Fold this sequence. Notes:
Elements: H1 3-12, H2 14-17, H3 21-33, E1 37-42, H4 50-61, E2 65-72, E3 83-90, H5 111-114, H6 139-146, H7 213-219
Antiparallel strand pairs: 1-3, 2-3
Amino acid sequence: MPLVSLFQHIYKNRSKDDKWNLLLEFLRIVQGISPTIISVENVPQIMKYNIFQEFITELKNLDYFVSHQVVNCPEYGVPQNRKRMVLLASKLGPISLLPPTHTKENYINISSILKGLPQIGAGEVCETDPLHIASKLSELNLKRIRKSKPGGSWRDWEVELQLKCHQKKSGERYGSVYGRMSWDAPAPTITTQFHTYGTGRFGHPEQDRALTIREGALIQTFPLSYKFIREL
């Protein structure tokens, strides 16, 4: 499909393709500056949409060699279960990702990343690291997390601690909500709400609190020395 036709196709179908419009903007940039190497990272679901295949076709029309695959981050030494589609394209010749460096037998688990940090409680901040700060928990949520085993979830609780939605058949699918992580496994996918207990399996493996900002950053492979600037 010619580039102009591709643009027209997407704008004609904005209601269903709206969230992929950044792919279109990226294609505009590629057409304009013709970089030698390009890379794209996104959720694997993007591969189900026609726009993705049309994007690849257009890159090839622009004389790029293209490869793409779904990457499971623990296979590349990241202590986090996170799958992403990675696309590489080159004008120099065939291109592909390096092979994985880790297998399940030697995944980097959170014990090697988080153990050794100062212990703090819910609502507390570390005296030596302001990013090692934990969100407050209500008395009810403190009771809940104390009943959760490492690697466990709300299913560990007595019925009186469970939310009514979890007692319904439809609630069974959300097994990781209000969960604790496990020392001997990679972390779950880190989201923007990882510091909030109740939004996923973001409970500390043994301390009664959710992850701190510092812990989330370490799981994202930021070094311990990394400093975040609050305001410019």
